[in-house]
Design a protein that fits this description.
- This protein is of the alpha+beta class.
- The chain contains 22 helices and 21 strands.
- It has an eight-stranded antiparallel beta sheet with strand order 11-12-13-14-21-18-17-16, with no helix packed on it. It has a five-stranded antiparallel beta sheet with strand order 3-4-5-7-8, with no helix packed on it. A four-stranded antiparallel beta sheet has the order 9-15-20-19, with no helix packed on it.
- A hairpin with a 5-residue loop joins β13 and β14.
- α6 runs parallel beside α9 and α7 runs parallel beside α10.
- The longest helix is centred in the first third of the chain and has 24 residues.
- The protein starts with 11 loop residues before the first helix and ends in a 6-residue tail after the last strand.
């Protein structure tokens, strides 16, 4: 299908301010909504011609699905769920939950591609469906309303299911299982499919329609974030593939469109994702999947892929790419992504007519068949199927990252600037304003990242393994969430604070051929105890023969500060030379020199030991923190920090 053009001014989507309900009004949905069985995103297993994957995919699918045949399914005793309430461990329960679902998904694929040898895999599908239907809850422990809301409780209430990411994901998986293997399961015993549809309805679709406590739907109890499009993408599949009643199908789709409009209304016009690049793959990408399902099911795209915000959201991964798989990882998320599914971005670029977005996806693809996830990666059946049945993706050659020279997101308040567009060589500066009330927030207003030759050296550590305290009142006891472990000042011993009032002011970006810069006042991100009147920070990348980055700070305090320090978090070997400069050198490649005013600031270096595998797989066993401490902190002062590339071999 050719990419859609932007809607004409009299298009219903434009007349309604770009709301999805304008593109897909109730009368259009009612006229075009197919009956169950008349539309499917994937062919049933009985369509032998459709299920003939090439390039070794069939062998890999069958091998992976055959390996656990005859083995017990992972157990889910109550004590694993209770671990979250007892000691904050989420993974004790979620790991076997994920293993069950991946095993079922592999069996579904194998049953489709096996042809005459499908019988053992259909038995495995039957066992898997039954195992999931026998689970007390599909909700993940950290999200369960009873455990979170009733002190002293350990376990979920099966009579009042919580609709979260886990429950919705199980709904989507079972819906696709129904579409692919449902007819074959009916030949084994129709009860399997009946049970599947009953549980999807009782645990997911009915609570969605009948209860008004879902903050992820309308933002009533939580900030709207990736939960909204992620859950709705699975609810659409559950509706289309398991619900018989025409009236109920229409009611569900209407509510889903309303929920997606709530999400879009909360998004910045620049298409930025304040949750960071890691979560974009379940925010912007899931929104696109919702639109793909709607437009395919209804038989019209209604011009929605020309919607300016939909187009802008597609560009976010491209804008945040540093190169070689590294990303600008403000908010929760690793600096090096492990779990991307680039086929969805490739389609997103095609549907919105943005070839550089699709090129970025091609650069992200691995060296395997670009369909099945790698070892240890989550197994998302929907995304595997979409890649499998997308010949343009399957045949697209891998390419280099497009690497735009610069991007300024004025609503999200993020600047990304590199020395030369299209090249991984040279410096990159990423800097942010924003607030300390963002989704998956870190207290990091005014922080920045500097990379050289596509390798971050002045860094954002990211986030460690999620635990109970990650999303409760103890979040900011975690070091990586706090401003002293971002590239920011500490004044009078006071760090930035969390919440809506703590934000940047007077934010302005200037971009040009020779330099890009971001200026902002970060004093408002600090509580009153810091006694700051203003702290103007200007971050600049200068291109050309004298390529460098400067960070200019100018502050005014209500009195002479008792202490003032500038912190930098770095990756690589940190070496101080004692005369106002230091070097940061990675294990391979060039490093950078960092210079400051040694007459005004002393310097010290400290190791930040890492033992969490989420950190160590990105950074190794340690990061380092460079602390510049004012010798005689003035009430009103200024300072310049300069970062320059080192010549090859120096450091």
């Amino acid at each position: 299908m050719q990419p859609s053009q932007a809607p004409a001014p009299d298009h219903p989507g434009s007349a309604s301010g770009g709301r999805l309900a304008g593109f897909f009004p109730p009368e259009l949905v009612a006229a075009r909504m197919p009956a169950i069985g008349k539309w499917t995103p994937v062919p049933p297993a009985g369509d032998r011609d459709a299920w003939r994957p090439a390039d070794g995919v069939r062998e890999r699918v069958l091998g992976a699905a055959a390996a656990p045949l005859g083995e017990p399914w992972p157990a889910l005793p109550a004590g694993l769920f209770a671990r979250f309430a007892r000691d904050g461990d989420r993974s004790a329960h979620q790991s076997p939950v994920a293993a069950r679902r991946a095993r079922l998904a592999r069996a579904v694929l194998a049953a489709a591609v096996a042809g005459d040898g499908a019988e053992p895999f259909l038995e495995e599908v039957m066992d898997g469906v039954w195992a999931l239907c026998e689970e007390t809850t599909w909700c993940w422990p950290a999200h369960d309303f009873r455990v979170l809301g009733e002190p002293g409780t350990l376990l979920p209430d099966p009579e009042r299911p919580t609709l979260d990411l886990g429950a919705a994901g199980t709904c989507g998986l079972l819906a696709l299982t129904d579409a692919i293997t449902g007819d074959a399961l009916d030949r084994l015993d129709p009860m399997v499919r009946r049970r599947l549809r009953h549980e999807v309805s009782d645990r997911v679709l009915r609570p969605y329609m009948e209860r008004a406590e879902w903050g992820w739907f309308d933002g009533s109890t939580a900030k709207l974030n990736n939960w909204n499009p992620w859950i709705h993408s699975d609810l659409l599949l559950g509706t289309a593939l398991t619900v018989k009643s025409p009236e109920r199908r229409l009611a569900l789709v209407g509510r889903i469109i309303e929920g997606l409009d709530n999400y879009l209304a909360a998004q910045p016009a620049d298409g930025g994702c304040d949750e960071g690049p890691h979560y974009w793959w379940r925010a912007g990408a899931s929104l696109f999947e919702c639109l793909e399902t709607l437009t395919s099911m209804l038989g019209t795209d209604a011009g929605v892929f020309g919607h300016p915000l939909i187009r802008a959201m597609a560009r976010y991964p491209l804008a945040m790419g540093i190169g070689d798989g590294w990303v600008v990882n403000f908010a929760d998320g690793p600096a090096r992504l492990r779990e991307t599914t680039p086929a969805v971005l490739h389609r997103y670029g095609r549907r919105t007519g943005q070839p550089d977005v699709s090129a970025h996806a091609r650069a992200l693809r691995g060296d395997d068949d670009a369909v099945l996830p790698g070892e240890g990666a989550p197994f998302d059946l929907r995304r595997v199927l979409d890649a499998l049945f997308d010949p343009e993706w399957r045949t697209a050659p891998r390419t280099g990252f497009p690497l735009p020279a610069g991007t300024w997101l004025p609503d999200t308040q993020v600047l990304v600037s590199r020395a030369a567009g299209g090249s991984r060589k040279g410096l990159l500066l990423a800097a942010k304003g924003g607030t300390n009330d963002e989704s998956h927030n870190h207290n990091d207003v005014g922080s920045f990242i500097v990379a050289l030759d596509a390798r971050p050296l002045i860094v954002d550590a990211g986030v460690g393994t999620y635990r109970k305290e990650t999303f409760n009142r103890d979040r900011y006891t975690i070091w990586s969430m706090t401003s002293p472990y971002h590239n920011l000042p500490v004044v009078n011993g006071v760090a930035q604070a969390a919440g809506p009032p703590f934000r940047a002011a007077e934010v302005a970006a200037r971009t040009g051929a020779g330099a890009d810069e971001l200026t902002l006042d970060i004093a408002g991100a600090y509580p009153d105890e810091a006694r700051l009147r203003s702290w103007t920070r200007t971050l600049r990348l200068v291109r050309g023969p004298d390529e460098h980055v400067t960070v200019d700070d100018a502050w005014s305090s209500e009195g002479t500060p008792s202490s003032l320090a500038l912190h930098l978090l770095v990756s690589g070997d940190l070496t101080l030379d004692g005369t106002g400069s230091a070097t940061v050198t990675p294990a391979r490649g060039r490093g950078v020199g960092v210079a400051w005013d040694a007459t005004a600031f002393s310097a010290s270096a400290e190791a930040v030991a890492l033992d969490d595998p989420v950190f160590t797989r990105v950074w190794g066993p340690a990061l380092h923190r460079l602390v510049l401490t004012a010798l005689r902190p003035p009430r009103d002062g200024n300072h310049r920090l300069t970062v320059r590339p080192l010549p090859p071999g120096d450091g």
